[in-house]
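This entry is retained here.
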Amino acid sequence: MDPLGADFIEVRSPYDGSQVGAVPLAAQADVDLAVATARKAFDEGAWPRMPVVDRIAVIRRFAEFYETRSDEFAGLVTAEMGAPAWFAKAIQTLIRDQGQAYVVAAEGYPWEVHRAGYPRGNAVWVRDPVGVVAAVIPWNAPHQVALAKLFPALLAGCTVILKLAPETAIDGQYLGELFSEAGLPEGVLSILVAHREVSEYLVTHPGVDKIGFTGSTAAGGRIASLAGAQLKRVSLELGGKSAAIVLDDADIGQTVDALRYRSFPNNGQVCVAQTRILVPRRRHDAFVDALVDNVSGMTIGDPADPETFLGPLVAERQRQRVLDFIAAGIESGADLAAGGLGMPEGINHGAFVKPTIFANVNNASRIAQEEIFGPVVCVIPYDGVDDAVRLANDSIYGLSGSVWTSDPDRGLEVARRIRTGGVTVNNAASDLLSPFGGFKRSGIGREFGPEAINHYIEHKTVAV
């Protein structure tokens, strides 16, 4: 449908400032139209009443179409927000796998259960779609985060309004085209781009039944308060300050090599980045030396170059925010082991920040407690496993984490003690059929697996 607002937004590369494209910027009238369209498609349309197997077939076709263009989409995200090519392509693999996992979850989901009632009679337990969903996503992994919400919402039979971040306003437009080609009925999915005021209008719109949000903890708190006032259903996947606990028997070289990808992915702009590394005090200096050596070998530059490990941050404002944290770390008295203020050597344009390592960090300091969302890591010494667990849990966040050890059983024992939504032992892969989400201020609710579908359904009991 044609936009009702007159404004457009330009998307420019954070690497060289070139224009990637321009798309309409939604006004309140566009939100009204999108909600009315979604409302009609839900209240009167075929999608919520369609057999689940038919909805699954649409998702399968979408996944097939998407796979043929995955390289194109990876390149577009790199151009929009500076994600290094290696990371953007890795996310495409995750998108493929999470789509398959959601289909498996939907095929095994108990959509309708017949059971004996108590104290008499029988009951039918039905999972109905929750209604019209507003899915609000960030810019750092736009397709992956969008589809982590769209797949379960659509499989449940909901209609969805997807609100894109202005920084990555272009790539999301293609999702609508592919879903349409896959057979999604008209009106089931609308996609728009909006700034904060119009986004809040969407979140508070009386025609929206449920909000699925991924983004900062501050923004999540705002959405939760707005949703709570209207008793809207809400799920929030928010920030993190995840700890990697390196036990005294861990191989330093192998651990550092793996943390390269877990602490600095996407230029440090991922919520699950393990930016607090807890190391036994007696091994602290050796670990820092190995980490500094590893970081010094990172190629920094053009994010489209396959050899580049670190590209620019999403925008100059994000660069300035990260530099403010680095300055605060220096002022705190932590040891600046690598990186620091200023541009990386040999680079004179773009939103770049040096990969930065602080050593001997006090866990109570600002750089250890607040989410920086950039290539900045804190190495924190500890005295004994109990102290390591205490430090790991001494955070307002609880999203991710890891334990590094030569003894997997010991790693599992320590992992059980960490108050966080997901933990890997050594370099284990995350399970896409298991729930993903956070403790404490890292969010409310879960994504992936049947637990994600649960957020897009209502429970109805029919006594017979």
